glutamate carboxypeptidase II (Ambrosia artemisiifolia), 411 residues
Amino acid sequence: MEGCERLSEDEVERAGDVPLIPSLPISGADGEEILRWIGGVVAEDEWQGDVDAPVYRIGPGPGIIKLSYSAKQVISTIQNVIGIIEGTEEPDRFVILGNHRDAWTFGAVDPNSGTAALLEVAERFEKLRKEGWKPRRTIIFCNWDAEEYGLIGSTEWVEENREMLASKVVAYLNVDIAVAGAGFQASATPQLDQLIIEVTKQVEDPDNSSQTVYDAWVKTTKYPKIGRLGGGGSDYAAFVQHIGVPSTDISFGNGYPVYHSMYDDFVWMSKFGDPMFRRHVAAASIWGLVALQLADEEILPFNYSSYVNELQKSAEDLETELSDKSISLIPLFKSIEKMKNAAVRINDEVKIYAPSKHNDYGSKCFPGIDDAVENANKLDTKDSWHSVQHEIWRVSRAITQASLVLHGELT
């Protein structure tokens, strides 16, 4: 932002919040050649290459690499693009659809498949509007800039509008990669699980017109598996982590070989990712239908039984992990029972998902407890295990307070 307060480069370096190790992507061929010259301990299996690759080690030496690095610290202007369809009955309640448009290279998959889907949804909604449709709640389309540089565009926007967004946003619907291959994938905060499942029953499977996306989904798993949003993998991070907004992220395909490379282009997409571009249509359809229901339903289609089930499962897993420790989980289970009783009336977010302290990209339930347990397992001191009990009480209080709010009681 022009005229905003900024830290100098020296202040940034002294703060220690920004990684200071230079990094540069290189080709697989160059990387393999470097790895051939590294000795020392053998790397873990998941770090090893294919059958023809050398055994990868993690060093040190014996090879020596001469590296020249030339870079400049520059301040660049970024631009988010925002479009709004104002609601009629609840214009101060927002349903936000977001996708970023910056790419490391050509970005046919990441992010342009998502950008294409966003434009398609916006165009369909505009056609509906011209035919007389008006959403009950306001719909906001956000095309973010500088996602690849640390989710900057979306995070700055959320921080700048924090108070308004925290009180007015109904849900944030993210699509980063809309299509990278076959197979529907979804992640969400739990209260949106059922809505996603129901919408996939209405959309034709792009790879088999005789069935729905849901039909294809349940063939791969007995029950549709929906992941969790808690880390910093895409632009949902600020909405989930900073302001506790119900959020989703959907796509087709799970991993693809040209990720963040110069081969992520239209040729790859048209030959391998989505030759008929039907998966793009399906992604846009699911995205748009989820948005429509959130924008138009008189009663928001949230289902908090999924939330309670997730809390219960995580608490049971924690109980197993701490079974040989003198740690009481009674307050946690009691608070979850209160939440279970209040779930039918819940209409606000309970923010339990977050990245672990040691993994900003992924997601964990009860991250504070998890980090405390990890630390206690290393130190195995009375104080460290006391910290675990303290974290359990903190989470229990948060869940209990949420339950009281749902019942209309004062905390």
User: Anything to note?
Assistant: The radius of gyration is 23 Å.
